[in-house]
Specification:
Distance between the termini: 40 Å
Number of helices: 3
Shape: elongated
Structural class: alpha+beta
Strand content: 35-45%
CATH topology: Alpha-Beta Plaits
Largest sheet: 4 strands, antiparallel
Oligomer: single chain
Order of helices and strands: EHEEHEH
Helix content: 25-40%
Number of strands: 4
CATH architecture: 2-Layer Sandwich
Strand order of the largest sheet: 2-3-1-4
CATH class: Alpha Beta
């Protein structure tokens, strides 16, 4: 049975950017938890050229109804012109963990999009 939660995947090129995004999302209660996974190598095509880069993967655990806020925050704090931002719905999870996730995110956001700003 589908839940009201989602996991957002975001890649960044350095640990500092990963920490800024993770801390800002959790402090703002847009995410209950952000796990940062290092040691990734991504191969992709950009502007018709094959690229390869070392990256960090952020696993952002949040509510489905906060996806626009999460996306806006990431875009404002990400150095890439087209950052990877992919949401995967959580179909099932332990009740205790999902209860914790819900208790540690805002229920809904009515913050104007231009007020979801950068973290220094």
């Amino acid at each position: 049975m589908p839940t009201q939660y989602t996991v957002c995947l975001v890649t960044v090129g350095d640990e500092k950017t990963a920490a800024i995004i993770a801390q800002g999302l959790v402090e703002g209660k847009f995410a209950a938890c952000v796990s940062v996974v290092g040691g990734l190598t991504s191969t992709y095509r950009w502007q018709d050229k094959l690229e390869k880069s070392k990256e960090f993967l952020l696993l952002i655990k949040t509510r489905k109804n906060l996806h626009e806020d999460v996306e806006q925050f990431v875009k404002r704090n990400h150095p890439n012109k087209v950052p990877e931002i992919i949401f995967l719905d959580v179909e099932y999870g332990s009740r205790e963990y999902l209860d914790w996730l819900g208790a540690n995110t805002m229920f809904s956001s009515n913050i104007p999009k231009d007020k979801i700003g950068n973290i220094p």
